[in-house]
Design a protein that fits this description.
19% of the residues lie in helices and 38% in strands. It is an alpha+beta fold. Among the domains are: 218-352, no CATH class; 388-493, Immunoglobulin-like; 495-636, no CATH class. A hairpin with a 4-residue loop joins strand 24 and strand 25. The longest helix has 17 residues, at 285-301.
Length: 641
Amino acid sequence: MKITLKLAVIFISLIVYTHNIKAQILDSDNKLTIVLKDGLQVTLLGQSISMSDQKSKNYFYLPTNPHLSLDKEGTPKFMLLKYMTEKGANEGGVSGALFHMLMEWGLTPKQQTELEGILKIGGQGARKGSILKGAVDVTPDGDNSFRIISALLSDPNRAGKVVMSKRAPIMPGAASSFASKMDNIEAQLMIASLEKDRSIADLSLELSFKYAVQMPAAKGRAIINWEKMHTQFKQDSASYSNKKKGHWWWKKNTRNYDEVHKFIETLEENKIIELKWEENIADDRISQMREAFFQFFLDKMSNVEEENTTSPPTEQEQEAMPDIKYGKKYTFNKTYFESNFQKNTQVFDFDAKLAVNKYFSVTGNLADWYDAVRDNEKCVNEVTLNDPFFEHRTIDFILDLDAIDIFEKEINYVTVNVRKKRKSGNDFNKHFTMDLAYLKENGPTKSISYAMGSDVDGEAYEYKIQSSLRGGKLFPENPTYKKADLAGITFSAPIEGRTVECEADLEELSALGVVRATIQLRYYKFGKEVQTNVPITVSKGVSIMEKTIFMDADTQGYAYQLIVDYKDPSKGKMAFGWQPKINDDYVYAAIPTEVLDENVAFIEKVIEAGKVIVKPSSDGSINKASGILDRFKDVINIVKN
């Protein structure tokens, strides 16, 4: 007789980005590589079917096909504008080039239609009737997941001449921006690398991602030899006496978890029960799966009752089943054993899977795209700076991709006001608004043009930006105009997301009698001090917790405080004081040495501090009287470069 027992699937949730509307669970064993007619290779992963080894016909594709974004007319969003003046360099003349492009990834409609057709008919190894469900849900691999690779433009001495998105776009069709202003030498070197006889240009862009995929973690088999079990039962029953130690389990005495667990181990030693394991992934949770069999067999072989006792759980109870209720007693389930004694063997198969992060990068080279735009005057052109064309000034405002995700959670819309003060005639004033609907329809770019007229400084203008927050508040309340003369302005949301990873040593906390460690985070959000709590509960057995916070983009850090709750009511709650964190997204719940050394004065102090912990308002804000960030202001409130 064979019974298949599926263990609960365990999932790893490391930095989960909030763009996911519905979580994808992908099967590493269900992978396809499809080659399209244009030579593009597309890697697909099948959707995992919960608690089953069956392979789904639903597929998602990994990021592929980096290419230039297109406008509504189908023109690539690419500009290489070579410029010069009539004056020579000794007369103050300038020459060089402006370089600007928007890049995205994902299948084109034609490629997607072709891929859907291949899957439908079961071509190239796919099963007939397979379906393309879209792109894999990915997250950027770090804060600099959009990377430029160029000997020329990566030169650190060119700081300020290159403007680009920091993070790779997480959705197909979402664009990353790159812009650079090159002098005459730099422009000639870059253009020379783009000539037709060059196999590669001196500009590659790399997008780095990570995604979660389900992989086989462990397989096991448990074999119960009921014939040997029956023989052991008869031998022990015949020789048992109150004075003689033996396999007392067959009698009606009640035993605790540790004693029963040792009895099951004895059955394994005597080959009555055989356990075989094949582990594919090194993970501490695999040991919990081994214990799952003991718990399963224990539930079958015994009757469980609550015991009127307040004695703590045994060490093995805590280790094997962190959430188990102590004070249980176990008695021999005679009915279960007798119903199985007539069997020869019974087999249980275990098949456990884990979801792990996989890393993936996509690289595109400018040479692959340039041939399609080199002869397009809308994309590549030359201009003399005293040409009449320059009587009009066009400014491109580009919302940084990092801000798009924030729109869905924190911001209603952003309003940009532009003005050009003139020495004669009316001043130029224009404004526009970007909200989520605008971004989905038009992308993250908005262009504004004005006539420069006869102004000597016709390229200079002013702009200010104001955000409407959830709840109807405006930030900043009274924005001021900034001066600029650039043809492109990339602006960010006033806040940025930061995922903080908090970790604790559960064994240390348990040994100290701590049932929960809470890491409080204080940071500036829209100019106000707010608080977020990250709890780590010992009984849940999860030592690492992640929390995404949104903090002011012009700050470089936050403050944190560790609070611990003891099981012993005489200790209660201890608060260990606030400390700053600078550009570091990892916090470890370190118990102070004074506590470990049982420093009475220190312990009394932190217990008192635990009695006056400030609770934030419903929106997380802290009133000014209870604020603590001012003491760290010189450290964390430094504008980033």
